[in-house]
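fyi for ur records
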Amino acid sequence: MPIEMDNSLLLNMSCVSSIKSVRSLMPDQPPSDRFKAEMPQIPGVTTPGARPATSNTASVKLGIGLLAVLLAVFLGARWALRSRHVEPRADKQPQIEVPSPAPDPSTLVPHATDASPGIADVEEMAKPWSSKAFFIRSNLSGESIPALLIRLPSGSASQASGYWAFSVNSPYGNCKLEYVTDLAKLRGDYGFPAAKHPMVGNPCNRTLFDPLKMTTLPGTDAFVRGGIVQGSDLRPPLGIEVRVRGRDILAIRTE
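which gave:
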């Protein structure tokens, strides 16, 4: 009897020891999950209780995107700095100052027209033998003719008889008449030793016209100023009618 009890005790102890060994080999699981059958994984179907992996994938994509943007910004900034450094600096071209064109002398003298015939005033022509250049429009051709106004030593400054105006274009040929106030030039260049006052000369043929001498035109009864005292010209310069209105001297028309 005692031997049978010892055998039973040994058998029980052996079973307990086996159960402990099996428990040590099994993982720690909740009691309810130890004997739960594992569900098969079906593609496209999320099992209950399983966490989706999309959140981890989105984080990875966001990180990659940020790195790509930073890399692009870095490369762009470096390329811009390199281009600015490599680009040669254009040398400044020296500025050449172009002088303004000289004013046309013809714009600095009066132009007598029918609407505006004034060419001078009495005050500026007060001195005997003073002169002033001007232009007058021809009634025949319509062109502006260069002319000259001379203050005569005789006659009043407030009267037309105190002035002589004429065209500086020679009546015949293409020469320009000149007003010579230098008596030495009249005696030397023109060979007129009897010169005692300024005269009008034709430099092309050395003809001299005396502003104080009146003469008649050949073949007419017209009495004009500027008689020829030397030379071969056929007539005096073409005269211009002058009037004085108040303090203004007017050029009315050409001969």
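The longest helix spans residues 54-86. thats all i got for now
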